[in-house]
Amino acid sequence: MRFSLSINGRIHHVDEDGQTPLLWVLRDTLKLTGTKYGCGVAQCGACTVHVDGQPMRSCSLALEAVSSAQIVTIEAVDGAETKAIQDAWVARDVPQCGFCQSGQVMSAVALLRAIPAPTDDDIDIAMSGNICRCATYNRIRAAIHDAAGRLGSGQS
Amino acid sequence: MRWRRSSGQSQRRRFGCLPILALVVVAIVLALAILLRPQPLPQAQSLPANHLRTEVVQLRPVAAFASIANPQARSIALFEEAGRVIQHPRCMNCHPRTDRPTQTDAMRPHMPWVTRGTDDAGAQTLRCATCHHDANFAASGVPGNPKWRLAPIEMAWQGKTLGQICRQILDPPRAHMNREQLLHHMTEDELVGWAWHPGGQRTPAPGTQAEFGALIKAWLDTGGKCPA
């Protein structure tokens, strides 16, 4: 079946089964491979994208459920929160192997948009669905605090 | 090896480059043939049958309790039969006594680590809808329903006896519903109904929602008595 998807501000026409996970469409059909396949069962968060502004696991999202949604992937996420997160990620040298990082960044950006000055508990709750096999959690948390600080001080 | 020429001089036997090169080429070709021979791709293997079985468990119909002459005893017996649904993991997992749901028939803590939030549908930054959508999704195995959320903390069932649950659901401040609404919730609510259509290899609740609703109605009609 043919679907029109709004992804990163562009309309993409895809001809796939409606039950195809959005992740497959992003990676295999549209070649937007910044969004990663980690577990395929909504356990790791590597495939996180923004759907109408909300972070969602694209491996657990049917194509037919997002045909009228605004989808943003790691390739196009932007704004002050994204810039602050990117800068903090670089300054803290957050990634180790890096595989989970696009999902971590998408969740972190959504967190800062919802809670501009998150506490440790806020970060733990928001980021608990994003697994990092390299266990960079302390750097992730520190970088989110850094980014929140930059946003609060107007540096980003 | 040595041998003598007719002239009488001894000479070492010589091997040319071509035979050695030919041997090397043959070895490479053989190695490639072995490595690149057509092989079947790994196939996904099914779990053993005993791990896949989802047992269909029946509920006793209301008529089966007609022989209990004492109305109070009949009412309690009806609720105890309905309790097989109420205390089933498909129902109990979303009636936790903490802010976190459980999952699977073993009722282990939910993975990932999630909390109920202010509206029982997840924290502001990690909603249930991050993964759970309007329907069960076969590709990821994640269950779904339009009303997917936890029961309010006042409706916590885990850790309670069936008698305690019985008195709780008859107490409007804790049940958030009167008896009429309770009957409708048990009989008609689509999220309750998910328990009989959980998707994947999840064990459905016993019987059907209609049979369960009939038990609840008969229980209420007989005075809504509770086990000890």
Structure report:
The complex is a heterodimer of chains A (156) and B (228). Chain A has helices at residues 22-29, 80-92, 101-114, 120-127, 137-153, and strands at 2-7, 10-15, 48-51, 54-57, 70-72. Chain A is an alpha+beta fold and 156 residues long. Chain A folds into 2 domains: 2-72, Roll (Ubiquitin-like (UB roll)), CATH 3.10.20.30; 80-153, DNA polymerase, domain 1, CATH 1.10.150.120. In chain A, strands 2-1-5-3-4 form a 5-stranded mixed β-sheet, with helices on both faces. The longest helix of chain A is centred in the last third of the chain and has 17 residues, at 137-153. The radius of gyration of chain A is 15 Å and the shape is globular. The termini of chain A are far apart. Chain B has helices at residues 17-35, 49-52, 71-86, 89-92, 162-169, 172-175, 179-188, 190-193, 209-221; strands at residues 2-4, 10-12, 102-103, 108-109, 122-123, 126-127. The radius of gyration of chain B is 34 Å and the shape is elongated. Chain B is built from 9 helices and 6 strands. Chain B has a two-stranded antiparallel sheet with strand order 1-2. In chain B, strands 3-4 form a two-stranded antiparallel sheet. Chain A binds chain B through residues 19-21, 40-43, 45, 54-57, 59-62, 65, 107, 110-111, 114-115, 122, 125-126, 128-129, 131, and chain B through 111-115, 123-127, 129-134, 137-142.
